Each structure stands twice: as C-alpha cells, then as structure tokens.
Amino acid sequence: xxxxLVALVSGLLFGLGLSISQMIDRDRVLGFLDITGNWDATLxxxxxxxxxxxxxxxxxxxxxxxxxxxxxxxxxTKKEIDRPLIIGAVIFGIGxxxxxxxxxxxxTALVIxxxxxxxxxxxxxxxxxxxxxxxxxxxxxxxxx
Amino acid sequence: MVEVxxxxxxxxxxxxxxxxxxxxxFDGRIAGISGIINGAIREGRKESWRWFFIIGMLTxxxxxxxxxxxxxxxxxxxxxxxxxxxxxxxxxGTKMGNGCTSGHGVCGLGRLSSRSLIAVIIFMTTAIVTxxxxxxxxxx
Lengths: 145, 140
What we know:
Number of helices of chain B: 6
Largest interface: A-B, 119 and 112 residues
Shape of chain A: globular
Strand content of chain A: under 5%
Radius of gyration of chain A: 18 Å
Structural class of chain B: mainly alpha
Largest sheet of chain B: none
Number of strands of chain A: 0
Largest sheet of chain A: none
Radius of gyration of chain B: 17 Å
Number of helices of chain A: 6
Shape of chain B: globular
Helix content of chain A: 55-70%
Oligomer: heterodimer
Order of helices and strands of chain B: HHHHHH
Helix content of chain B: over 70%
Number of domains of chain B: 1
C-alpha cells in the first residue's frame, strides 16, 4: 500500500515534469532533434535538470542497504554492451525521430488531447509485443539447433 | 538558439529527476517508463505499483491541462502514419534495448551505467539523423 502511494506521487511528479517542460509537445521535441535546421535547444535543460538531480541523489540512495519502504533495490543486472542494446537503441531512436514522442511523453499526452498520442500509444504497445514474438521465435530457433 | 522558457524546461526536468529519486529511495524501483508500461500490461495486478505510477502520470498531465496549460501552447496536428510507424519502432526498440529516455537517460545516467550511456548516445544520434533525413532530405 505504501509502495503504491509512492508510485502514485512519483508518477504525478513525472507527468507534471514532462508537461511543464513541454516534452509532451511533439513539435517542440522534433525542433530539438532538428540540430541542422532551426535548432531549439531548450529541451537540453530537461534532460540536464533531470540527470543533474538523479546523478547526485542516486549516489546517496544506493549507499542504503535497502529502500526506505522496500526490501531491496530492483536494479538492472546486465552489464555488457550487447547487440540487443545497440540495435534496440537504434530502432527506438528512429521511431522517436519519426513520432516526436518517446514512451513517457506519449503516455502523458494521452490526457492532453488530440488523436496522435492515442495512435502512438497503441502502436507502441503493439510494437513491444511484436518484439516478444520475434524474441520467442529466435529463442525457439536456437533451441532447435 | 535557446528560447526564453529554458527555466520551465529546467524545472520540468528537475521534477522528473525528483520523481525518479522518490521512486528509487522509497520503493527501490527505476522510473523507466517503457519498462513500467510493459510490466503493467504483462504482469497485471501482480505488481500494482506500475499501474499506480501510470495513473499518477496521467493525473499529472490532467493537472497541467486544467490548471497550467492556458499559459502555453501545444499543437494538435494529426499525423497518423508518423504515429503508427514511430510508435511501432519505439515499442519494439525500447523492449529490445531495455529502456527509453527515462530508464536509460534519467535513471541510467544517474546510476553511471555504461550500458545506459551507450544507449543514450545511440538513440539521440539516430533520432537526430532521422529528423535530418525526414525534414531536410525527404522534406516531409
């Protein structure tokens, strides 16, 4: 229960942050990515502000033996730079450049209005299941060999 | 060129950082949105915190819309094909690469993860190249 309350508050701040910073406006995001055109660098401050906070705060948090209201930290365990990481990042980058939305802003923009976010979000969910399908068939192929 | 509202961009970014800090400090969870969406849909009620986070995000957007939006503008253009193609690629790529701008960017860089640093460099570069390609080469 306490954990869910934290998630609710944290999600609220996240959605508010994405909205205030204008990440929910795809035209702005595309203008930020358009460095060879009429570049709008403002959104650099979004990632800068966010990472500025986490890079300091996480150092202290991760020194704790466990989270304040939890039994352990759920951190990614993979360390190696593998093919799925690189190819996945390339595919994501292309999609971001086409849509102007990444997952967070796409989700929050659902309540701002317009049809774009709805189509984007449904396609995103479908895309993630297509990866599951692709991954499953690849694993089966490997087992057969 | 930096537009005048860099201060709102910075404060919005810091709110996102604060959100990720609270979630990690209290729940021990990473605020990676692609992972939260994927986990919420696949694991359902088993780990309900993800749904609470999503409800929170939507509430944050609604709060902005009804209390803060009049001061700014958000365009409501309609680009169905960009949404379908872009959405499919974003969903596929973030599932494959285990993260997006928040998981690898905000949280991964905060943890000084080398995997995340590589991912951020790659997806920022490909996104920039994609926009260059579509806007200046294809002139879409």
